[in-house]
Amino acid sequence: MNRFESPLASTLGNVLLRDVTLRDGLQLTGKLLPAEQKIETVRELLRLGVPAIELGSMARADLVPTMANTLEVVQALTPEELEKCWIWVATPGHVAKASAAGARNFQYCLSASDSHNRANIGRTTDESLAALPEAVEYARAVDGQIQLCIATSFTCPFEGYVPEERILSIANDPRAEGTTDIVICDTLGQAVPAQVARLISRVRDESPARRIVYHGHDTWGLGVANTLAAIQAGAAMVDGALGGLGGCPFAPGASGNTSSEDILFATRPGWLTPDVFGKLVALSEKLLAELSEPNRSKAAQGARSKAEAFDWVMPVSANQPASAGGN
């Protein structure tokens, strides 16, 4: 273990961070970033070592305007770059259109609660499950992979608590055969670490073998704690967004994602050095300032502190941020 790696390195193993800034992060912002800027952001994240990126969504542009140029971004990236990129989909048609543009990694999302699935996708959960086999076939036709993503895995903004058995029934549904991963989402950020660990453990032990992904929000301040609990329970990929940006436009009360900077500082994968971390912080600050969004990352704030004897504090001269504004 090098001096910058986490003391938890043996526990964390080879867990991958997937940065979802360009999808979940942008959903609640009011500004459509130009495709060129999104492409450069993808490439800069990859250059810095971020192993996986969610670059956009096939959601309707009239409902989520910030996703309008997603296919333009996909078409501009190389096959090698797209190997590390994911795209959010909710129907077989989404997979067909995204794969025709060059995408190969798909996150097929549905909600555990019917109420949120109707608000988010316009159909019941069972209707989304019924369409999943066709989506899997489209992904297989291009040698791609498709995740089963279960939103509102802990609580729903309309129905409240979601029983674990509901998540297990979806995870074990035969119509999900062929999905390579299963994504467990704390859409509202209302779960606590013990809940997260228990559900991840149950999905790992009681459903078909797939890589487990955890997607958390920091609404109640437990984003990093829940992410670490998910990793220790068996999650092999975790989601975060730069500066804690984002949330779900169809889930009242779902504020920012867990910050990528905070997750990385807590887990400290082998590729992350103080210099790389500083460049991620600077990239985040620049993006957030342009969007007039606040920086919710505690680690980014720490990196700008005056405790200069600490390796992870950025030099005073390193790309001082503009005011991010926001609310």
Structure overview:
By secondary structure, this protein is of the alpha/beta class. Helices cover 41% and strands 15% of the residues. It has 14 helices and ten strands. The chain has helices at residues 9-12, 21-25, 35-48, 70-76, 79-82, 92-101, 114-121, 125-141, 164-171, 193-206, 223-233, 260-267, 274-291, 298-303, and strands spanning 16-19, 52-57, 85-89, 105-111, 145-151, 155-156, 160-161, 181-186, 211-216, 237-240. It has an eight-stranded parallel barrel with strand order 1-2-3-4-5-8-9-10, surrounded by nine helices. Strand 8, helix 10 (193-206) and strand 9 (211-216) form a beta-alpha-beta unit. Helix 10 runs parallel beside helix 11 (223-233). The longest helix is centred in the last third of the chain and has 18 residues, at 274-291. The protein is globular and about 55 Å long. Mean pLDDT is 92; it is low at 322-327.
